[in-house]
Amino acid sequence: MKIDNFEINKSSKVFIIAELSANHNGSLETAIETIKAAKRAGADAIKLQTYTADTLTIDCDKEDFIIKSGSIWDGQTYYKLYQSAYTPWEWHETLFNAAKEEGLVCFSSPFDKTAVDFLENLDAPAYKIASFEITDIPLIEYVASKGKPVIISTGIATQEDIELALDACYRMGNKEVALLKCTSSYPAPIEEANMIMVNDMAERYDVITGLSDHTIGSTVPVVATCFGAKIIEKHFILDRSIGGPDASFSMTEQEFGEMVNAIREAEKAIGVVDYSLTEKQKKGRDFCRSLYVVKDIQAGEIITEENVRSIRPGFGMHPKNSIEIFGERVNSNLTKGTRFDIKYLF
Question: What are the structural domains, with CATH classification, of the chain?
Answer without folding.
Answer: 9-51+86-270 (3.20.20.70), 279-344 (3.90.1210.10)
